[in-house]
Design goal:
With 282 residues, the protein is α/β, with parallel strands linked by helices. It has helices at 41-49, 71-75, 92-100, 108-117, 131-143, 161-174, 189-195, 213-219, 227-232, 268-281; strands at residues 2-13, 16-26, 30-34, 56-61, 77-80, 149-153, 181-185, 198-203, 206-212, 220-225, 238-244, 247-253, 262-264. It folds into 2 domains: 2-212, Rossmann fold (3-Layer(aba) Sandwich), CATH 3.40.50.300; 216-281, no CATH class.
Length: 282
């Protein structure tokens, strides 16, 4: 079963339009949602959760079309949204007691284990936590009621490299169960490159593409040559380009490049940055 299915989903504001978005997240997989600030990542997650209503399109979550009519399905979703999602006056210990009254599947033992693993002081109030500690507490809550779907907005933000690496291992272990899936947005593209099976690129509300991570690496490459050689490439080959006094570089579609061209692999981060620059230069 697909954990998520979005078809033609659109949301319009006076100065911004998101969509239409088409995205499918199969069970047992992780999709990374990449985009600059204001691209529409947080709005997409809020639409999935029913916090915002879409103007058009359909959203299906864990096999259900209407989350409001399916409270049991809501309990199967673990959520970390950017911004404070926990009352600032509560301690980690108090948060555990509150959540036990909210989630039927709340597991106090699992929560205590995460608090210990993340070194969260039990008696310290949330508003006294550092940014990284706040994120750790939100993650502990999201993972402690046995969710099937995780929706994570900038979940690695504020965490040091060691903890980020530990979190990636934790999330990879979560999706070993084919009934589990993760949709995660992040500015730290290197984290998503380690974690994700598929990558979705959002730019100014438009979904530029959503493809398997390895397929993206196979389809695109960095081309190197001179400015005159760059001019000889067909327009449909070049996605984005840069010319300097030392030569020319372009993001290209690998299969369309003439034989004998000098190509190097492109990282997911380079791919996104160059695609956005290509949009800006169009």
């Amino acid at each position: 079963m697909n954990a998520l299915e979005l078809h033609g989903v659109q949301k319009t504001y006076p100065d911004f339009t998101l969509g239409p978005i088409d995205l499918t997240l199969p069970g047992g997989t992780v999709c990374g949602l990449i985009g600059e600030n204001g691209a529409g990542k947080s709005t997409t997650l809020k639409l999935i959760l029913g916090i915002l209503p879409p103007e058009s399109g359909t959203i299906r979550v864990l096999g259900k079309d209407d989350l409001e009519a399916s409270p049991c399905t809501k309990e199967d979703i673990g959520v970390v949204l950017s911004g404070d999602g926990i009352p600032t006056c509560l301690t980690a210990e108090q948060v555990g007691k509150v959540m036990a009254g909210i989630y039927r599947n709340w597991d106090a033992g699992v929560y205590a284990g995460f608090c210990k693993r993340f070194e969260l002081p039990a008696k310290k109030k949330y508003n006294e936590y550092s940014t990284g500690m706040k994120m750790k507490l939100c993650l502990a809550v999201a993972l402690s009621h046995h969710p099937k779907l995780l929706l994570l907005d900038e979940a690695t933000s504020g965490l040091d490299p060691v903890v980020r690496d530990e979190l990636i291992d934790l999330l990879l272990d979560f999706v070993r169960d084919e009934d589990h899936a993760i949709l995660i947005s992040s500015h730290i593209v290197s984290d998503l490159e380690k974690l994700c099976d598929t990558i979705a690129f959002l730019h100014k509300g438009r979904l530029l593409l959503c493809e398997d991570k390895d397929t993206l690496r196979e389809e695109y490459a960095l081309w190197h040559g001179t400015a005159s050689q760059l001019e000889e490439l067909a327009p449909d080959v070049v996605v984005s380009q840069r010319v300097t006094p030392y030569g020319a570089e372009a993001l290209v579609k690998r299969e369309l490049v003439p034989a004998g061209s000098t190509l190097t692999p492109v990282s997911i981060e380079e791919l996104f940055v160059l695609m956005v620059k290509g949009e800006k230069n169009a």
